[in-house]
Design a protein that fits this description.
2 copies of one chain form a homodimer. Chain A is α+β, with helices and mostly antiparallel strands. Chain A has a domain at 33-108: Orthogonal Bundle (Arc Repressor Mutant, subunit A), CATH 1.10.10.10. Chain A is built from 6 helices and 3 strands; from the N terminus they run ααβααββαα. In chain A, strands 1-3-2 form a 3-stranded antiparallel sheet. The radius of gyration of chain A is 15 Å and the shape is globular. In chain A, 34% of the residues are buried. Chain A binds chain B through residues 10, 12, 14-25, 27, 29, 31, 34-35, 38-39, 42-43, 54, 56, 95, 98-99, 101-114, 116, and chain B through 1, 3, 10, 14, 16-25, 27, 29, 31, 34-35, 38, 56-57, 95, 98-99, 101-103, 105-114, 116. The structure holds a DNA duplex. Chains A, B: This is Transcriptional regulator. Chains A, B: Keywords: DNA-binding, Transcription, Transcription regulation.
DNA sequence: CTGGATCCGACATGATACTG
DNA sequence: CAGTATCATGTCGGATCCAG
């Protein structure tokens, strides 16, 4: 059992044998990832603190963790500026942007089917 | 659930889109749900044992649990026949089928981006 | 401001034996 | 065949303190 490099708990060994859905799931699975991607898709780039403000309820620990996983999976780009105080901006990579259609459809589906 | 900053630093589309995504995420969240839905989408209806065979590595406990949640969310229909031995077939509800486009796109994206 | 490190409880998931 | 019950394990995710 190969130790996970950095992504998440789902082992990617016997995933490829099944179908693309499993890989997509392994990349997007997580309580906050879809929301993070949606915000970045909407606003191009966001600072760490801006993300934290928008993701109501997330802890710093989780925000950092999810961002790292998204970076490891090549969906999110991290750009830090050598300033004081530090400034870090996150944005979508092309791979991340290629999820746009899926994200939009998920948003539409959720809005339509969430009857509370 | 929509909270509003009085004016419009954040546009409405944005907020709705994220609420929708949050609901979609909450419904699809889980290690196996997407795969279960994908198999049911593909094969119309499947028996419990057929699902178990296809979902390599899932435990009975998890399969039942995920199926129950999918039923509770109205995505999957359970049809049991009064026979001996018992026969139970699972299929997608219309709500479940309405995820078809999303599932197909996730499968395509996963196949295209899973470079192993 | 942007994180890193650690502790800990809650919960997701798995293994296995058992039942109608 | 289609589940349940029980026990065991690991991961998630929050709180808190610390650092450049």
């Amino acid at each position: 059992m190969r130790k996970q490099s950095s992504t998440n708990t789902i082992n990617k060994e016997h995933i490829e044998s099944n179908c693309g859905i499993a890989y997509t799931n392994s990349v997007l699975n997580g309580r906050w990832k879809l929301n993070i991607l949606a915000f970045l898709l909407d606003e191009e780039k966001l600072r760490y603190s801006e993300l934290k403000t928008r993701l109501i309820g997330i802890s710093e620990r989780m925000l950092i963790a999810q961002l790292k996983e998204l970076q490891a999976d090549g969906l999110v780009h991290r750009n830090s500026y050598p300033e004081v105080p530090p400034r870090v901006e996150y944005s979508l990579t092309p791979k991340g942007k290629s999820l746009e259609k899926i994200l939009i459809q998920m948003a539409e589906w959720g809005t339509k089917n969430n009857q509370n």
